[in-house]
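Response to reviewer comment R2.3. The reviewers asked that we include at least one raw input/output pair. We reproduce the pair for Septum formation-related domain-containing protein here without editing.
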Amino acid sequence: MRRLLTALLALVLVGLLALAGCSGGSDDDNAETPTPSATASRTPVAPPEPPAEGACYRLSWAEIMEPTTTAEPVSCKKPHTARTVAVGELDTVVDGHLLAIDSDHVRKQPPARCARAVDAYLGGSVEQRRLSMITSAWFAPTVEASDAGEQWYRCDVVAIAAPERLAELPSSLKGVLDSEAGRTRFGMCGTAQPGTPDFERVQCASRHSWQATGTVEVKGAKGDKWPGKAAAERAGAERCKELARRGASDALNYKWGYEWPTAEQWKAGRRYGICWAPA
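Raw output as returned:
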């Protein structure tokens, strides 16, 4: 793992001491008196300003998958796919020791902090945010930039339009999930029944035939481990069936679907399943 090289800026003083000759008629009276040299110093270079909160960017799917970015901001009135909603400073010192920006302690900070910042920005309930296609992306300086003194992290809000494609955002998303219109536009829908070959997760503003209707908390096994496929699948069966029945025109003839968290998703922090029904 790359280690952070601690940058130390020190003042360097270069000079010669002038030795003055004594008076009294010695041969040194006519000697040339040395002239002290000029004092040279290295001017500390201040690190660049951190990213600006409220800035907009036109990022691709591949770019939000990276922990760093060099993209320049664009006008929020022009097409953009990301908006910075929070900027903070990383905690890189533990027990008096300076840690590398790519250490586990530092790398865990932006995802958690940005998730909270984006949740507060979007509004809505926990379930409404889970059922939306809006999520958070985060960035931090490169190891080299961190060596030069940059310690910021940046939280962006992005919306997923379809697999590996970001949606263009309106001029503001603040509180968007507090409104029915916002939840409908950025809701989670599908092009077919989940689990079938034609299924793709899309925004409900796009053409779709299925819609996510609710979530189900899935309990972990001993030690908060992934409970396994069978247990995760059982956790949502009754709730998803009931949600589909309530929304169906015929309570005796309806379809429903359920997505449970995989082992990989569980490890990444998703501890809930998603219920689906025909739109």
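The first helix runs from residue 61 to 64. DSSP finds eight helices and twelve strands in the chain. Further pairs are available on request from the corresponding author.
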